[in-house]
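Input structure tokens:
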């Protein structure tokens, strides 16, 4: 029995360049509009903290949300650049652009994998922010320190590593290159001659 996977033909150069352009614009927007993205994340984190029982308040457009509303321990949690999912997504966009540019993965497959990975990274970061909020409400400043520096870091490292592994696996499954295949330009010339 032959266990080799089917090899897909690479996208046309125009399609690949369009994909790289879209990924580049997404990276540029995440870099230049990061404060708006962080504000959106703060709103989502506030909502999720409220669901799990950490009473919160968030002002629309702000990257700060307050936990412990209605208690005698109210804390303001601000999402700074290092806390944002954008910091985790930008390298994946860069990697995706490189793979698509060189024709290693078709644009559609890469975009699906990228969207799934971005949602997974956002979920991992939201889990971290909910844990930080809950620990802060229940244990004050010491709870924040524990949840933010130790537990939250472990969650993001583990979740990020798993997400990147799955993203890499997705890329390899959707690849356009067979074992021992010629470089992309040679394969494209063959396709054009046929």
């Amino acid at each position: 029995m032959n266990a080799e996977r089917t090899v897909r033909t690479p996208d046309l150069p125009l399609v690949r360049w369009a994909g790289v352009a879209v990924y580049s614009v997404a990276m540029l927007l995440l870099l230049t509009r990061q404060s708006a993205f962080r504000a959106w994340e703060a709103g989502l984190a506030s909502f999720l903290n409220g669901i799990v029982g950490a009473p919160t308040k968030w002002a629309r457009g702000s990257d700060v949300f307050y936990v412990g509303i209605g208690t005698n321990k109210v804390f303001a949690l601000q999402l700074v650049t290092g806390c944002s999912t954008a910091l985790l997504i930008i390298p994946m966009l860069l990697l995706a652009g490189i793979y698509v540019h060189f024709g290693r993965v078709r644009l559609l497959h890469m975009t699906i994998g990228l969207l799934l990975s971005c949602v997974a990274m956002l979920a991992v970061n939201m889990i971290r922010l909910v844990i930080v909020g809950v620990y802060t409400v229940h244990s004050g400043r010491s709870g924040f320190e524990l949840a933010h520096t130790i537990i939250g870091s472990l969650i993001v490292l583990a979740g990020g590593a798993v997400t990147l592994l799955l993203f890499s696996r997705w890329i390899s499954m959707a690849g356009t290159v067979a074992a021992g295949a010629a470089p992309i330009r040679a394969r494209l010339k063959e396709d054009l001659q046929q």
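Strands lie at 56-58, 64-67, 75-78. The chain has one domain: 13-187.
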